[in-house]
Amino acid sequence: MTPGAPANDRRDLVILGGGLVGMTLALAAAKAGFTSHVVDRADPAELTAEGHDGRASAISTASWSLFGNIGLTAALEPLGCPITRIAVTDAMKPGRIDFAPPPEDGTLGRMFANRDLRLALFEAARGEPAIAWHSRAEIVQRTRGEHGVSVTLGDGRELAGSLMVAAEGRRSPTRDQAGIALAKWDYRHRAIVAGLAHEKPHDGTAWEIFYPAGPFALLPLTDLADGRHRSALVWTVAERDGDAVLELSERAFLAEVGKAMHGIYGAVELIAPRASWPLGFHHTARVVAERLALVGDAAHGIHPIAGQGLNLGLRDVGTLVEVLSESARLGLDPGDAQLLARYERWRSLDGFMVSLATDGLTRLFGIPGKGASAVRRLGMGAVQRLPALKHWFMDEARGTSGTLPELLRG
Fold first, then answer.
1. Which residues have CB under 8 Å from 43's CB, separation 6+?
2. Alpha-carbon distances, residue 334 vs 4, 23, 76 (angstroms)
3. Cα 77 vs. chain centroid, distance in angstroms?
4. Cα(8)–Cα(16) distance, rounded to whole angstroms?
5. Domain ranges in the chain?
6. Minimal CB count within 10 Å: which of 119, 154, 254, 373?
7. CA-CA distance, 341 to 323, in Å (whole number)?
8. Nearest 5°: phi and psi at 93?
């Protein structure tokens, strides 16, 4: 990593946003021979502090291959919990689906605390000379033109490159400045996130328990150092109830959690602070503009119902790096319009289909009433009895369906 690179240090990419997707892109691009400026307003020390972010992410099989291909799996392997089974149920009533592949087929992915992912990414970036990392930096101007791109920082430095990449998340100012149209709506829900220790082992099971107010997910994490079993909770509640749930006493909160869990893990305790995030949907009409590519939540923000948000962004990363590499072999500039058109064609349909599927699931399981519940459970029971259909769903969860870029192949 080159901290505070000089103003005349022109690089291939100017990546705006150094979070999980942005920093993975910088590392993957470096392995492919591309240099980058990574600009982020956050302080890395705050992002990796204990208790800053209690969220956890499911890393699909394909995304794990990406991490392996850029040299991260050795650092991450001991920190991830294999997902051996996904249990999907409508309020714990009869008719649930168990997605449990045979041992020879491998797991359905791995769960990681977001903090552990950041620590591994940031440590790798610090040792990579192809990455100039500008943290705690404010951008005061963005410029894209026929021959290149640049950003001006609050301290007056100008960082130049050939392609600008927006990896700033859902509220991307770069996307908005480019005038890219956005379809979006608010689910009027909040995700309550917390860390739980529990009496019984989870055995690598990820639970998705659907209630009319929203899904209640229990995601398996590695055991604590003292041997206690641990899971991440993502509990979707109505927006109007979000503050009340956060303000519950710890005892009352755990009582509500225990009721929703139906005792599957025995006694539970809170081991990480509660936090909440508003839930919404957005999908851009395009993922490119002149010398600009969108990746991750800047292009598509989806409900966490299927745990695919980060994996969708990592597919963006793998695709963009492959398109950059192919274009370089043809002697094209990293910001070439033909390159961006190929990235657009490859990513648009996949991003749209995943977004549509997660939105549909959210709405389907949110329909109240006994009749709707009975129909859902009937359908889930049919899926449970059809091995071919279950296998298709498991391939989707692993991220191994469709045409994958090379970095995401095993």
1. 135, 136
2. 23, 18, 30
3. 18
4. 18
5. 11-83+111-184+283-366+399-408
6. 154
7. 10
8. -85, 165
Closest CA to 316 of 286, 348, 355: 348
Where does residue 222 rank: exposed (0-12), middle (13-18), buried (19+ CB within 10 A)?
middle
CA distances from 41 to 132, 151, 342 (A): 14, 13, 30
Strands 205-211 and 139-145, bridge-based pairing: unpaired
Query: Are 23 and 37 in contact, with CB atoms under 8 Å apart?
Result: no
The CA-atom distances, in angstroms, between 393 and each of 20, 342, 357, 374, 388 are 25, 28, 12, 21, 9
Of 20, 27, 28, residue with least CA distance to 59:
20
Q: Structure pTM?
A: 0.91
List pLDDT tens digits, range 7-39: 568 999 999 999 999 999 999 999 999 999 999
For residues 1-21, one letter each, b for 16 or more C-beta atoms within 10 angstroms of the residue's C-beta and e for the rest, the string is bbeebeeeebbbbbbbbbbbb
Query: Mean per-residue pLDDT for 167-173?
Result: 96
CATH of domain 11-83+111-184+283-366+399-408: 3.50.50.60
Residue given tokens 């149209």 in the structure block: 181
**327 with 336: CB under 8 angstroms?**
yes
pLDDT at 97 over 90: no
Closest CA to 57 of 138, 115, 127, 125: 115
